[in-house]
Each structure stands twice: as C-alpha cells, then as structure tokens.
C-alpha cells in the first residue's frame, strides 16, 4: 500500500482508495478465478488441442497444425455433420418460434385458466433433457410405442424412428420442439403484452381484419422479440446434447456438430485432437452469431 | 354458453372458443406424454410388450421402482444429485452475490472490463470446455469425486449479470445511509443489499438448482463409478442394462425419479422459475 502511495503522491486519498480496490478484489476474485481456470483456460487449451493428433489418455501427441481442420473440411464428414446440424437448428428454431407465437397469441387473451396453461406449456423446458428423451423414446418405439398404436389405428405404419437416420433426426426435432416451445411462448407473450392496444384499434377502425392486423401491426412490432428469440434458440439448438444422446445413442441420425465432438473425443476412437477441432468450430460459429446479435441490437438502439 | 358471467373479460365468441381449443391442445400435448410415461412406470412386461395401446396398466407394478433401485442404487444417486445441486447451486449464488456487489458498489479501475470478462462467459458452452477440463480435473484426481463434479461449473456469468442488474436498481439512499452509519461493505451487503434483493436472488438460485439437477454432459464424462453418479447419469447406466422392450417399466420408473422432483419444485415456484429462465438467456 505504501509503495503505491509513494509512487503517486498526488493522490492524498490513496490509502483509502487502495483499500477499496482490495475490497473489490476480495468480492470479485473467487468467481473471476474460477472463470479464468475453468472457462477461459480450457477455451484456449481447446484451440491448442485442436492442432494435435492425440488419443485421449495417451501421453503422446503429435502436432499436426491445421491437419484436423483439413481432414474434417476436405472429407465428406464436414458436409454431413454440418448439414445435420443445420437441419436440426433451422427446423427446431423455425417450429419453436411459429408454434410458440401461436400459443402466445392464445395465452394473450387472458382467458380464465391461461395462467395454468402457460405454466404447463413451460414445464418441459425445465426438465432433464435426458429424462425427456427416454420418456419419448418409449412413445416413439415402432413396435410397442403408443404412437405406433395410434398410427396403426388410423391405418398407417409407424416410421422406423429408431433405425432409419432421417426418421431419427425427425423424431429428435419433434421432441426438442416439444421441450422448448414453452420458452418461446412465454417470451412472445411478454412481447405481445407490450403491443399498444391503440394501434390495433386504429387498424380495426381502418377496416383491417384480424389477420391483416396481425401481419401489418402485431408481427412487425414483435420483430425485436422474434430476433431475440431467434438468436437465443439458435444458440441453444447448437448446444443441444442430452436429448440427442438419450434418443440416438450412437449418433446415427442426429449427429450434430456438438454430438460428433462428444462421440469422437470420448467414445469411438477417443480422438481428442479431432474432437477439440470440432468444438472449436462450434465455438467459432457461436461467436459469429453473438457478434451478429450485438451489431444488430446496436443498430436498433441507434435508429430509435 | 348459459354460464356466461356478466364479466367483460370473457365472452364466448368464436375467437374465444378457438383460443381455448389452442390452449387445451397445447396443455394436452404436454400432459399426455408425461402422464403416459408416469403410467408406464407401473407397467409390467405384459402391458409393455404389446402392440396395442395400453394406457392404464392391467396389473399395477410398483415393483418397477424397487427393481430400478436394485439395478442402479437410486437412493444413493438421489443423495448424490441432492448434494451436487444444493452445494453447487448454493456456492454459485454466493459467488454471484459477491461478484455483483463488488461490481456495483465498490470502486476499481477497469471495473467495466472485469464485468465484460465475466459476462462473455455466457457465450462459452460447457461442451467447448469439457475436454480440457476433463484432462485437468482428472490429473488432479477429481474423477468420481464430489469436488470434481461441482468445481468446474461454479464460475457464473449469468447469475452475476442478473444480480448486477437487480443491485443497480436498489434505492441508493438506503445503502448510502448505512454507509454513513458506519457500516462497512460486508455489513451493507448482508444487511441492506441482500435482504432487499431476495426475489432476484431466489430467481438466480432456482435457475441454478434446475441447471445443476439436470446437468448431464459433465457427470457423464467425470463419473464412471456407479456409487458417485447423479440421477441423469444413472439413467444412462439403467438404459444400457435394460435393453429389452419389456423392461421399459423399470426405465420409466428411473425417469420419473429424475423428472418428478424438478416438476414438484416448478409446481410451487413456477413464476420465479419462468422469470429466471426468460430473463437474459438460457444458461445457469
């Protein structure tokens, strides 16, 4: 403390100041240290790992530079995995937003019982993805599941949800949307409640029907909410894991980028370097998306 | 129709009916699968290994639960999950309170950058850090231990962010008055700031509880000893040992044990939980 005081004699209050700084550090340091050790350190270490040819558990690793990246992007694997990731993300985000908005519109009329409906629809969002996946796996089972029995009653054969990759991906998308729909509905509901009633009334007086009012007044006013939801649901879809591994243990249909990173790193051949490359690619995608969000939000603030 | 009360809020127009149908459909889509899973947890092989739609078990078989508990020691797993959830969420909230207090009420050059550094962690999913953290924790001997399970997830950007927002909205005069009365930072924190922010703290705590209880990837990686597994991790073990269709009942019994505690908490505190999850992002 005295050293600092001596260096900057200009500040008479130095002692008190330094005490204040130390207090700040005492408050903040435990969390910051944990973040540094368990988030930032591994983040950069992961990038380093991604340049190695290294089997998890082995003491030896060979530096291969960008070799892992080249292997991934030059082989057919990148297009396969990235296509699966894109299909999963676009389908889950699109369905979650459209269905969530539908439910929010119904909730917004504040009918008796709407509170109960809102809580019920939200509930799956907070459940264990792994547990939810198992419960639905039983329903989807092509032989003994409830869904196949219902389909048979209406004269349809159950698709091979478990053994045919495209159907597996479809199944996982359906269950993921089921689980996340309530989140979008609640966020949209908050957006809808902020839509000024006078605007809708004015449109009504101008002779716009309910459909037109929705598309010309409500939907444009909801665009910030839509944008927010789009970003958050894209980010969480890219990180979806529990549900996928519960329903598609070997990753035959729903092998998205993150699922691939787990399987190649910890299962199969335990290729830790290759796995680190995959999660680095995922992180790069997340950073780009977040930056896009920040830039767009910034723009919106300026225009207001 | 006859029951239409003279209230201005509800009129049974076609639109009201349509919206009721939408809500009813949405509720059924959520409740039916969960109810079906719950009923399946009481079904024996006869009700399960059939192509017919059996909703209610012909023979109720609560033994599924004891059988699940034999295959995987669910009592122990429940204890592990509870320990990890209470300790993990408790420490996370404490860290968030301290960090948010420092960021709002203490002075420090470059405080803004510390905040951005903490906030930016919300962009880093645990999956990206899992592999290096696994290598690091296992080199310290943390495999199959409580501390190895809890420690890497404690640093929190989300909790800090939410509590910082809440602390900034507190009436400054009250805290200033305490300051003038000679209360130091520590006293001001626990006697002024925390009591005034209890709803936000509860929200952060609930989000952390849900997150810790459901966490799957990290326990999957760091725990291999069945005695140290958390509940979702234990389900994997059960799923691997129960591949026959007729044993779905046992698997569903295990699943009910994972889902039900969180559903019960949600039933009581749903408003706080919904608020927590819809304010600023997804991560605990």
Descriptive overview:
The complex is a heterodimer of chains A (304) and B (284). Chain A is mostly helical. Chain A has one domain: MetI-like fold (Orthogonal Bundle). Chain A is 74% helix and 2% strand. Chain A has 14 helices and two strands; from the N terminus they run ααββαααααααααααα. The two termini of chain A are 47 Å apart. Chain B starts with 13 loop residues before the first helix and ends in a 6-residue tail after the last helix. The interface between A and B is large, with 103 and 91 residues.
Features:
heterodimer; A: 304 residues; mainly alpha; MetI-like fold; two-stranded antiparallel sheet; 14 helices; globular; B: 284 residues; 2 domains; disordered N terminus; transmembrane (chain A); MetI-like_sf (chain A); transport (chain A)
Task: Describe, in short, the structure shown.
Chain A is mainly alpha-helical.
List the SSEs and their pairings:
The complex is a heterodimer of chains A (304) and B (284).
Chain A: H1 2-7, H2 14-49, E1 52-54, E2 61-63, H3 67-74, H4 77-107, H5 114-122, H6 129-140, H7 146-153, H8 165-193, H9 197-205, H10 210-221, H11 223-238, H12 242-247, H13 257-266, H14 272-303
Antiparallel strand pairs in A: 1-2
Chain B: H1 14-40, H2 45-48, H3 63-71, H4 74-105, H5 111-119, H6 126-139, H7 146-150, H8 158-168, H9 172-180, H10 185-196, H11 198-214, H12 217-222, H13 231-241, H14 248-278
């Amino acid at each position: 403390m005295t050293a600092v005081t001596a260096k900057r004699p200009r500040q008479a209050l130095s002692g008190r100041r330094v005490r204040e700084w130390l207090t700040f550090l005492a408050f903040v340091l435990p969390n910051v240290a944990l973040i540094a050790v368990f988030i930032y350190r591994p983040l950069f270490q992961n990038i380093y790992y991604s340049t190695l040819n290294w089997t998890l558990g082995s003491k030896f690793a060979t530096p291969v530079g960008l070799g892992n990246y080249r292997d991934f992007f030059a082989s057919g694997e990148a297009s396969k995995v990235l296509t699966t990731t894109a299909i999963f993300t676009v389908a889950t985000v699109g369905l979650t937003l459209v269905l969530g908005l539908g439910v929010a519109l119904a909730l917004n009329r504040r009918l008796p019982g709407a509170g109960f409906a809102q809580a019920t629809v939200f509930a799956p969002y907070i459940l264990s993805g792994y547990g939810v996946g198992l419960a639905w796996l039983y329903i989807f089972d092509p032989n003994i599941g409830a869904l196949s029995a219902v389909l048979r009653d209406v004269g349809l054969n159950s698709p091979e949800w478990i053994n045919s990759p495209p159907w597996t991906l479809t199944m996982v998308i359906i269950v993921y949307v089921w689980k996340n729909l309530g989140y979008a509905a609640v966020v949209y509901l908050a957006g809808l409640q902020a839509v000024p009633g006078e605007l809708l009334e004015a449109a009504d007086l101008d002779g716009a029907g309910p459909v037109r009012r929705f598309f010309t007044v409500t939907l444009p006013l909801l665009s910030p909410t839509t944008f927010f939801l789009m970003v958050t649901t894209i980010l969480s879809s890219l990180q979806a894991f529990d549900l996928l591994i519960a329903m598609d243990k070997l990753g035959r249909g729903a092998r998205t980028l993150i699922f691939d990173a787990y399987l190649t790193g910890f299962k199969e051949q335990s290729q830790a370097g290759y796995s680190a490359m995959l999660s680095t690619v995922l992180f790069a995608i997340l950073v780009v998306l977040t930056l896009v969000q920040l830039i767009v939000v910034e723009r919106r603030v300026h225009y207001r | 129709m006859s029951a239409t009360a003279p209230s201005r809020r509800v009129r049974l127009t076609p639109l009201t009916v349509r919206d009721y149908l939408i809500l009813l459909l949405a509720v059924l889509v959520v409740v039916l699968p969960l109810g079906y899973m719950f009923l399946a947890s009481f079904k024996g092989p006869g009700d399960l290994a059939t192509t017919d739609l059996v909703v209610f078990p012909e023979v109720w078989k609560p033994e599924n639960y004891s059988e699940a508990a034999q295959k995987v020691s669910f009592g122990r797993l429940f204890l592990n999950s509870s320990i990890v959830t209470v300790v993990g969420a408790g420490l996370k909230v404490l860290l968030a309170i301290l960090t948010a207090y420092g960021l709002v009420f203490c002075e420090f050059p470059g405080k803004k950058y510390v905040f951005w550094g903490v906030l930016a962690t919300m962009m880093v999913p645990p999956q990206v850090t899992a592999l290096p953290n696994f290598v690091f924790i296992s080199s310290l001997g943390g495999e199959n231990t409580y501390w190895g399970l809890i420690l890497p997830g404690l640093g929190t950007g989300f909790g800090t962010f939410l509590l910082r927002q809440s602390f900034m909205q507190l009436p400054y005069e009250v805290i200033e008055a305490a300051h003038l009365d000679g209360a130091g930072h520590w006293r001001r924190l626990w006697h002024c700031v925390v009591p005034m922010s209890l709803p936000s703290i509860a929200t952060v705590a609930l989000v952390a509880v849900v997150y810790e209880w459901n966490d799957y990837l990290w326990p999957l990686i760091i725990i291999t000893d069945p005695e140290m597994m958390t509940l979702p991790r234990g389900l994997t073990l059960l799923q691997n040992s129960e591949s026959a269709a007729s044993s779905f009942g046992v698997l569903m019994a295990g699943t009910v044990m994972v889902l039900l505690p969180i559903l019960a908490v949600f039933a009581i505190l749903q408003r706080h939980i919904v608020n927590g999850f819809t304010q600023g992002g997804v991560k605990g």
